[in-house]
Specification:
By secondary structure, the chain is mainly alpha-helical. It is built from eight helices and no strands. Helix 5 crosses helix 7 and helix 5 crosses helix 8.
């Protein structure tokens, strides 16, 4: 239970930081709120329809506005946000790959690994090896 709580805390901290950085280049309030919604719900299955309902606007309008202002479709942004959160967790935690994948809403560890490799060019294990803190650095 404590581990799940810690994962949630790490995700929220990361999400808040990324949300603030990413929103600097966004103009509309709808896209800003949509990005907040995405970062607050990284572990859940999200759809453009669900986000649009949350914002009380039409899904097609949100989809077009989001793509125009962010430079990528809604679904692609979610995947990138999840992989970026995973990078943070790989570097700053010792959570297993399965724990990270499930906490970020991936359907399985293999789906997580495949997506992570496609976007970063390396597996989560190689990423942790390359960028994670070694025991000597933690002293």
């Amino acid at each position: 239970d404590r581990m799940i709580e810690m994962i949630g805390e790490i995700q929220l901290d990361y999400a808040e930081r990324m949300r603030d950085i990413k929103k600097e280049h966004v103009g509309s309030i709808h896209v800003r709120k949509c990005m907040d919604y995405i970062y607050e719900h990284l572990q859940e299955k999200m759809t453009i329809e669900g986000a649009a309902a949350y914002l009380q606007i039409h899904p097609t309008y949100l989809s077009k506005l989001f793509s125009k202002e962010v430079g990528m479709p809604f679904r692609q942004f979610i995947i990138h946000a999840r992989v970026n959160a995973a990078k943070n967790m790989l570097v700053y935690s010792d959570f297993s790959y399965l724990e990270i994948s499930l906490s970020l809403g991936f359907s399985s560890q293999s789906a997580f690994t495949s997506t992570f490799r496609r976007l970063t060019g390396m597996t989560p294990g190689k990423y942790r090896e390359a960028f994670g803190d070694s025991p000597a650095e933690q002293i």
